[in-house]
Design goal:
By secondary structure, this protein is of the alpha+beta class. 28% of the residues lie in helices and 25% in strands. It folds into 2 domains: 2-74 and 249-313, no CATH class; 79-247, no CATH class. The protein contains 7 helices and 16 strands. The strands form 3 sheets. An 8-stranded mixed beta sheet has the order 1-14-4-11-12-13-3-2, with no helix packed on it. A hairpin with a 2-residue loop joins β12 (220-224) and β13. The radius of gyration is 25 Å and the shape is globular.
Length: 322
């Protein structure tokens, strides 16, 4: 979709000889336009829920909330959190918030924190197998490991689940063990608990009371900067905590090869190529958003006004009705 958006933008700009936009400028404005539309989805979803509450929204094909939710759910992911290690490798009940460094993507909004409280078995992968974990010193059956239990690579922090169990081998849903030196931890799937978010100013008072102190059944967490503190403090193992969150969209990048004449030619085979992550029907919105930005960039008020006017003439949406 990114090439179609760029061609549309260039066509409109060149129609009245307003100028040319370089690939680097296009990529910068494309990222801003995508992020602006992404944030509008959350706002529009809130408005559709309010409309349903006052019975001004329909059902079936008139259920406007459903397609908005489906778009947002494309950005909903669950990843294990990387734990923070204390002095002399002392385990801490602190975990890093999702980021490119720890989970591969940044969190736009955390939906919930999940804790696995029962460790079934831990050790080291002794034999390299495809899509499996093998520990010749273990007996997974007597350790109580069953199909569906969670397996964490404590070296790479990747997580998957068990699909078959034998005494020394666990067949996994994903191939996460790529070296015999990788350490592992298995958690019981039935031991999962959802942690309640608590304000940092209240957690001390809660911990001081026998009646309100967080427990393994009812854990709690606070967020301080890029650290998530989980309570009780016994929840401190690798892979013990995972987060379900809305990630940021990947930054779009229009990649190209340069011809002898100097005109860039679209080339999506480049390793850093990235298309828009919004649905195809948002293509025209991306074009009009970028025209607004470009009108300011090239100091042509007509271009900016054109982009704004096109948005006002779009199919009415909740963001425009209110």
């Amino acid at each position: 979709m990114i090439n179609e958006v760029r061609n549309s933008v260039l066509t409109i700009l060149n129609k009245n000889n307003y100028g040319y936009i370089s690939p680097s400028d296009f990529n910068l404005m494309a990222a801003n336009a995508q992020m602006e539309l992404y944030e509008e989805y959350f706002s529009n979803f809130n408005k559709t829920i309010n409309a349903e509450n006052v019975r001004t929204s329909g059902s079936d094909y008139a259920d406007i909330a459903k397609p908005i939710a489906e778009v947002l759910e494309n950005f909903l992911v669950t990843n294990s959190l990387v734990s923070k290690i204390g002095y002399n490798s002392y385990p801490l009940n602190q975990f890093y918030t999702p980021s490119v460094t720890t989970t591969g993507n940044n969190a736009y909004m955390i939906e919930k924190i999940l804790c696995y409280t029962q460790v079934l078995k831990s050790g080291t992968n002794t034999t390299l197998n495809l899509q499996a974990l093998e520990d010749t010193t273990a007996n997974f059956i007597t350790s109580g490991v069953t199909v569906g239990d969670i397996v964490v690579n404590a070296t790479t922090f990747k997580t998957t689940f068990v699909i078959s169990v034998s005494a020394t081998i666990l067949v996994l849903n994903e191939d996460i063990f790529l070296a015999t030196s990788n350490k592992y931890i298995t958690y019981s799937q039935s031991s999962i608990s959802e942690a309640e978010k608590v304000a940092a100013g209240k957690i001390t008072m809660l911990n001081a009371s026998i009646l309100t102190a967080p427990s393994l059944i009812y854990p709690a967490y606070t967020i301080s900067g890029d650290i998530i503190n989980v309570y009780p403090s016994t929840i401190n193992s690798y892979g013990a905590v995972s987060a379900t969150y809305f990630r940021y969209p990947k930054v779009p990048k229009w990649t190209y090869i340069t011809l002898s004449g100097g005109e860039p030619l679209f080339d999506q085979s480049q390793p850093d190529y990235q298309d828009f992550e919004l649905p195809n029907e948002d293509g025209y919105k991306l074009v009009t958003k970028m025209l607004e930005y470009l009108g300011i960039s090239i100091r042509e008020i007509e271009v900016s006004q054109f982009g704004t006017a096109q948005q006002q003439h779009e199919q009415p949406s909740f963001s425009m009705q209110q």
